[in-house]
Specification:
This protein is α/β, with parallel strands linked by helices and 526 residues long. It is built from 15 helices and 28 strands.
Length: 526
């Protein structure tokens, strides 16, 4: 086997990946395309720019060389606070090719968040988009850590223009530290998730290529941003792995923005999140976007309601593949397939991953329709949480990763999302999943979005409370509340209907569109 290559060995397992030693993942993701004749093909397109695979390769080498010329050494960390653009991808892989560890973080945080991240990762260098200076400057001034090198992306690009266009890949192995992402902190600070070189290969080969069926002639657009593990795969590693074209936008996510991008670049693969799909369907009641280029859509981050899937297919003629993934496992490891879609479920394990459900004592649950915590085993797993041995010991159990997601498996082997462990509630002594109630609510014609959390009644007993965004705000009131109660009672077990309804303009969400139920639980607390 040549150096810096990966192959599939089907003699032992139909999807066993074999990595050369040494192995630097920048070579198969970037350099390989020139050897395979894609140099002149569009690798990245935006509203204002277009890069070929050759131009991307040159930028990767220039940026890697410039980082080394600034005195960075292999193993040093580069903190990236960079909005979506071709230079994000070039800088990320340029660092990896040079042996430097890129740490890409959320571009939508507060100054106090960046103050923490700068100190927590102990970066040797920091690069940020000039548009973020208003929050980055006070964060740098307040941080207890002062990286030796700090500059805007624009200054870095300008200085790197004179760098050499050739760069030898730094020696590494498939298990060497490669990059970090930060898991979103819901009630505390985010945690650095450390990934080796092989992680992005495993997700790209197993989910993108073999499960979702991405291919070279695709143009891929994702509303999830590059700093997030979902967008990281969708809008960077997946299309690069199969030699497709990436459509990027740094605009704020909205139905109008997504329609514009799909129409402009004739996207064939679209990655969204459930809340956006629901908003797009609502918007299509008054607009008629041209989505005829799409051949497949994918969703993750939250459970996709079966009703949204049904209406999307009726409206667009395309299917949505729902799945479950995590930052710690980098991307989706349970998924529906184009030829095997079970609405309202996350599907079945992606080939190459093992899944088990465990109870509160970590015993494996064999019976169907029994809620437990998802544990996953696969080669895309992170190696540790940075500077957090307690969290590492709790969540990373040998080869198994405790995801913290509550699921049940039906008799046919499909996995149903029951929420995070802290989203679950016991009503009358019986476990109750917020997603099941939310899915029922969103089937009602008046409901755009919903989120269900636990709330105590006057006797201190837990019951479901529903926060509901209506298609028409003017419908809020007692009549709609009674209609929704009847709708839930007709389709759910008797104890699961919401006892309280709160009609709101919107729901609190993370930067990537995931509903923050903990904020709603805080509102519902006595």
């Amino acid at each position: 086997m040549n150096i810096n290559t990966v192959s599939v060995d089907r003699s032992v397992h139909p999807n066993r990946l074999v990595f050369s030693d040494p192995f630097n993942v920048a070579v198969p993701f970037i350099d390989r395309h020139l050897a395979e004749g894609r140099g002149d093909k569009a690798a990245i397109v935006t509203e204002s720019a277009s890069w070929t695979y050759r131009e991307l390769s040159i930028a990767v080498n220039k940026y890697g060389n410039h980082l080394l010329s600034l005195g960075l050494k292999p193993g040093d960390r580069l903190l990236m606070v960079v909005t979506d653009c071709p230079d994000f991808i070039a800088l990320f892989f340029g660092a990896i090719k040079a042996g430097i560890v890129p740490v890409a973080v959320n571009t939508m945080l507060r100054a106090t968040d960046y103050e923490f991240l700068i100190a927590d990762c102990g970066c040797a260098a920091m690069v940020w988009s000039e548009s973020l200076a208003e929050v980055i400057d006070p964060a740098r001034a307040a941080s207890s850590h002062n990286p030796a090198l700090a500059m805007t992306l624009e200054a870095f690009i300008d200085a790197a223009s004179a760098a050499d266009e050739a760069l030898d890949a730094a020696p590494a192995t498939a298990l060497s530290e490669c990059f970090w992402l930060y898991s979103s902190g819901s009630t505390d600070n985010p945690k650095g998730v450390v990934h080796p070189h092989r992680s992005m290969v495993c997700t790209s080969e197993r989910f993108a290529k073999n499960t979702a069926g991405l291919r070279e002639d695709d143009t891929v657009f994702s509303v999830s941003k590059l700093f997030h593990s979902y967008g990281f795969g969708n809008a960077m590693t997946f299309p690069l792995w199969v030699g497709a074209t990436i459509a990027l936008s740094d605009q704020r996510v909205s139905p109008a923005m997504s329609f514009e991008m799909i129409e402009k670049f004739r996207s064939t693969v679209f990655f969204g999140v459930p809340t956006l799909y629901a908003q797009q369907l609502h918007a299509m009641e008054s607009t008629d976007p041209d989505l005829s280029s799409l051949r497949i859509c994918i969703s993750a981050g939250e459970a996709l309601p079966g009703d949204v899937l049904r209406r999307w297919k009726e409206k667009t003629g395309t299917v949505i593949l729902d799945g479950l993934g995590s930052t710690e496992n980098l991307h989706i490891f349970i998924a529906n397939r184009p030829d095997d879609i079970q609405p309202g479920t996350s599907g079945t394990p992606v080939d190459g991953y093992e899944i088990k459900l465990v109870d509160d004592e970590d015993n494996e649950i064999a019976e169907p329709d029994t809620i437990g915590t998802v544990w996953v085993k696969g080669e895309s797993a992170a190696t540790l949480y940075w500077n957090n041995p307690e969290k590492t010991a709790t969540m990373m159990r040998g080869e198994w990763l405790n995801t913290g997601d509550m699921y049940y498996r039906d008799a046919d082997g499909y996995y149903h999302n029951a929420g995070r462990g802290d989203d679950m509630m016991k009503v009358g002594g019986l476990w109750c999943s917020p997603f099941e109630i939310e899915n029922r609510l969103i089937e009602h014609e008046k409901v755009l979005e919903s989120a269900v959390v636990a709330q105590q009644d006057e006797d201190g007993l837990v019951k479901p409370a529903a926060y509901v965004v209506l298609n028409e705000a003017s419908d809020a009131g007692a009549e709609t509340e009674q209609a929704l109660i009847s709708h839930c009672r007709d389709g759910l077990a008797h104890y699961k209907y919401p006892r309280w309804f709160y009609f709101v303009e919107d729901l609190p969400k993370t930067a990537t569109g995931k509903i923050q139920r903990f904020r709603l639980r805080e509102r519902a607390a006595p």
